[in-house]
Amino acid sequence: MLLYRCLFTLALPLVVLALLLRVVRRVESFVDFQERLGLWPELSNEPIIWCHAASNGELSAARPMIEKLKETNALLITCNSVSGKRLVQSWALKNTQCRLAPLDLAWLYHRIVQKNNFRMFTLFEADFWPNRLIALKNASVPVSLIGGRISEKSAKGWARFGGLASRVFGSFDLICAQDGASEKRLQNLGGQSFGPRIALKSFYQAPRPHTPNTERARTWLAASTHQGEDEILLTAHMQILERAPHVKMILAPRHPKRGDEIAKIAQTLGFETKQRSKGASFDQANALFIADTLGEMDKWYAASSICFVAGSLVAKGGHTPFEPLAHDCAILHGPHLENFAEPYAALATHEGARMGLNAEDVANNVLALLENDVATRQLHNARNALGAAQTLDQVLDALQHTLKS
């Protein structure tokens, strides 16, 4: 812990300089910069529950739980990105404030915790910053982890620092893990008090039902792609077009700044490209549309009937199957599924998803799902596979018990 604090303090001038440069470039405002330094406007004097989720995906997944909590509590919601803060602000929740999470400095969190009346700190899924968690624990603020997940790779990294890991993961008064594998890893790292498991993204709600239409029926989405996947998926689309020239592809990179890089790959393969970041709309695209912006994934799910869940052709552990399912997208994926191993295992058992190892596999699977009723049957199987998710009420009861104990 001492080593961590020393290294973080030594890096602080560079971190602050990087944040100031974001202000100069107008990527963030000066208010955002102040929030990252913990210079928040005064919170309410009344008891408040502090909720934290790292980014847009975690915030969207946590929203049903947040909605329940705000019914009887004042809330503070923090996140790590400006787009996440804007997302929460767009919800216009009553009795709720939103801030960017501060840098992980012990003295800063000590001041924040001492200055405010926190009833509980609730972390959604993962974002394990030591000084934050230990400051809350030292102040006797109940700390909970809901939908907790940790990959095998991350767990091995934490295990190298056993003393720090035991303090961090032992700080939780309640852990409701995403699945059995994450629960076991969290327990091995020092977690002690476990409640009902919950996969938060299973409660993700699509913003609106989708009306069937011809354009959607012939469009497939590659969602949250990572470097090393784009060329494989673009090659698959070329093979699809050889047999079904009317099919369109939306490619949404995990990191939108990679949009220009992906456009160059696509052009090398012979595609005419349209990019969302350049102001293009999906309607303007022919065979390929690069959706390289933040905060618009709902729009791309809504425009597609088939979704390849990326992060699974390369060793990134895969992304959630719950969001595409909530948007009525038939699911495809690659072999790397460690982040959501149990849901994907259930999908495999019920024939609710298809796996592809290479471009040819992906192309064949997309073409198969374009056949009459094939995608509909797979969607039905997927809902059966993932329909037995843990209820919010049981987790809320566990949270209430933690508050009273």
What does this entry show, briefly?
With 405 residues, the chain is α/β, with parallel strands linked by helices. It is 45% helix and 15% strand. It has 18 helices and twelve strands.
Major sheet, described briefly?
6 strands, parallel
Helix percent reads 40-55%
Class computed from helices, strands and strand pairing? alpha/beta
Radius of gyration: 22 Å
Give the termini distance in whole angstroms.
28 Å
Annotation field: number of helices: 18
Apparent shape: globular
Mean pLDDT: 91
Assembly type of the chains comes to: single chain
Q: What is the chain-wise order of helices and strands?
A: HHEHEHEHEHEHHEHHEHEHEHEHEHEHHH
Spatially, the strands of the biggest sheet line up as 3-2-1-4-5-6
The stretches of 5 or more residues where confidence is low (pLDDT under 50) are none
Topology of helices and strands:
Layout: H1 2-24, H2 30-36, E1 48-52, H3 56-70, E2 74-79, H4 82-91, E3 96-100, H5 106-115, E4 118-124, H6 130-138, E5 143-148, H7 152-159, H8 162-169, E6 174-177, H9 180-188, H10 214-217, E7 219-225, H11 230-243, E8 248-253, H12 259-268, E9 288-290, H13 297-302, E10 306-309, H14 322-326, E11 330-333, H15 341-349, E12 353-355, H16 359-369, H17 374-386, H18 392-404
Parallel strand pairs: 1-2, 1-4, 2-3, 4-5, 5-6, 7-8, 7-10, 8-9, 10-11, 11-12
